[in-house]
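Example 270.
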Amino acid sequence: MLIDTHCHLASKRYDNLEAVKKEANACGVKVCISQGTSPEDWERTLAGAQELPDFIVPCLAVHPSDCTEVSEEQWQQMEKLAEENKIAAVGETGLDYYWDAPTGWEESAYRSRQHQFLERHFELARKLHLNISLHTRDKVGAGDACFEDAFAIARQFPEVRPVFHCFIGTKMQAERIFSDLDGMISFTGLITFKKTEAVQAVAAWCPAERFMVETDAPFLSPEPYRGQLNSPGRVALVAEKIAQLRGQSVEEVALHTTANARHFFRLPEG
Ligand SMILES: [Zn+2]
Ligand SMILES: [Zn+2]
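Predicted structure in complex with zinc ion:
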């Protein structure tokens, strides 16, 4: 069996979660970790998890791209929901330097707002004894500022383990995540796209106990469905590609990524 460790089932693009579950189950995907990342997502994510408790496990946070939209009151509401509901991790949060600052925001002020939010997420995770799901995205060719800034913040919270989701970084970055943060990385369908040899090489090399698989659905549908609406069932295609890159069977990849996910997100054995 497989676990999709990162998707967004609160997306309005899914109108029938039961059908999403059926399709996923048919592909061997039994559980998915759904990330509620904005005020309008939170209740929908929790409602989905209530509707299909054996399939959907919720996470709550503010996505870095939404940090200028969220009021202090909404933040407090999110903290309360995180405390009162059983969530798998704080997520997804992180830093995003890919998109320009929203209208009315200086780039530097926008970034420090993101940093502030990320620190608060780590504080929340520490308080709730949870791990954290991190998004880092930089402009193409802009260097690794986003990764380095997120890494520096994560280092201040040794009690909280991070997963760098949709990992597209280097082997050296992955090694630092493992050794300095006791962290994890996870791979999306991006690994099935053309011209992603660098991250494919990281997946082929990565120690088995350090990575997980995810879809980031509704985004990033793997080949041969690139550009279409993604769904948790397609994490099977991500696992297949990784198995091929590592010269392992899909069963082996499923076995260790599922064990890693259960441990990282503190899911019951099953
Ligand atoms: Zn993300
Ligand atoms: Zn995501």
